[in-house]
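Self-study notes.
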Amino acid sequence: MSMSTQFTRTAEPLTGSRVGELPWIEDAGQVAPRDARELSKVFFQQLQVLEEGTHEYQYARNTLIEMNLSLVRFAAQRFRNRDDQLEDIVQVGTIGLIKAIDRFELSREVEFTSFAVPYIVGEIKRFFRDTSWAVHVPRRLQELRIQLARAKDQLAVRLDREPTVRELAEHLELSEEEIVEGLIAANGYNSDSLDLPADSGTGAPGRSGASVADFVGACDPAMELVEDFHSLAPLLSTLDDRERQILELRYGQELTQSQIGERFGVSQMQISRILARTLAKLRDGMLTDG
């Protein structure tokens, strides 16, 4: 029996059991990915109108997380050579999934899966920026670093912000001095040369000609463009055909203003004015939307 068939059978008796406007799903983690995509749209619609902090809001948000954990497992497969860290990878990937859920809007007109995966992979890559100890650190502090990393992730989700030293100390039942010592020791983590070959025992996936630097996480400038592109899409539909064609020729096909002018039978100066006016219209729309 396929997971999709199993879900359909499970969902039918629940048509009368709802949380507000949402169907009750007993085990969201067992929903097949195909069904999860459709159900996620329903839950996102309600999430946008529900009051944050209510039981209904928490149910919608938690169900979305559980239904889409398969995206985290999918992204984690890219790092399957690090089996000893798989649990940590899934945990940090889940943080990325939660961030994506909190920032996603149906008005973006993009599949949630496409929106979420960059967030998930980004969190995992940032996790791998710490791969080895730069200086000798006692085993006690090495283990404390791992505890702190997990505690910080758990509390960040619960508090929706970075935890303080006191909150970490209470969570781990340690003194604040021990927490500070662990945080300082964590700065000694990561020292391997970025020029090392990827298959030199560093744990990076083997690939001919690749170095460790190819797998080190960093702030991806393209991540900042994701939301801009989705916000820009509906604004493009407000342009007339000529404005859209000129934008496509200038920035899609990279033609010069003179070449575009020849196609439209107008001067380069006229094309320049149309571009300036069109870009100003889009810029104003982006600022108003923000």
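Second protein, same conventions, sequence then structure:
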Amino acid sequence: MGLFDFFKKDKENKEQQQALDEGLQKTKTNFFDQLSKAVVGKNTVDESVLDDLETLLVHADVGIDTTVKVIDRIEKRVARDKYVSTNELDRILREEIVGLLDAHGDTTGSRAILDRPDSPGHPFVIMVVGVNGVGKTTTIGKLAHRFHSAGKKVVLGAADTFRAAAVDQLIVWGQRVGVPVISHGMNTDPAAVAYDAVLKGVEMGADVVIIDTAGRLHNKVNLMNELSKIKRVMQKVIPEAPHEVLLVLDGSTGQNAFLQAKEFTRATEVSALAITKLDGTAKGGVVIGISDQFSIPVRYIGVGEKMTDLQLFDRHTFVNSLFKK
């Protein structure tokens, strides 16, 4: 890496850190303002402090089960150390949250494409799932931008054929990013679109093929059948496809995102998560809870409107930003 590339990378890292800090501002302001009030005038972490902390974690949409885990871990540390001051609570809470995220974090899957020097002979296929309105198609566009900017060849497949807006939106993203989009239009067979997109990826020696799918949950049986069919036809071209099933969730919906995760993990084998719209909510704790409860790694988080605001999720950077005063 030359000196120019080093400074360029350093600038990009600082810009991403700033975007992350700003994107989590509502969550941390809401949480730490309340935490400060809970411990005011107290010197030690006692039962009442833990009760208040439990309430705050639930309100931050960390989720009941994950909150209970965190409180239980802190209780054990307090019992072991005999005396834990309220000044130490931030540090302990940070360590315990990182510990939970460490259990379900990895750097494999689609994010590893950025570090791969060349294609292994076929494209890495990502099937993207999620309900309408969570930012699914926008996330695909931003992913395409990330890969394309890194010098990777990308093909998009517009297999959400039940909404004209979804097909049109993906085509616009393809033009904006500068990558081909395979589309058969609205009310066509989604599996046929996916097949042609993967085939196109193989023919042009692409690194990545990203397939958009319909975001309907009103009938889980139909959804399951549709996703299974898409997988089967893609496997006629690449037997291992899809290599990743990426579930996109809207972080601002809080507990509703938990319900969506539950439904989609029942309908298909979700292997990674992208959690969007964290900049517009005080419910950023949902990242912690969903990762813990479903034992699925978070690959990406959305912290703003810009194309670069879909960031690779780094659990340590995320928690450090969350606790930054």
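Instructor comment on the second fold: The longest strand covers residues 244-250.
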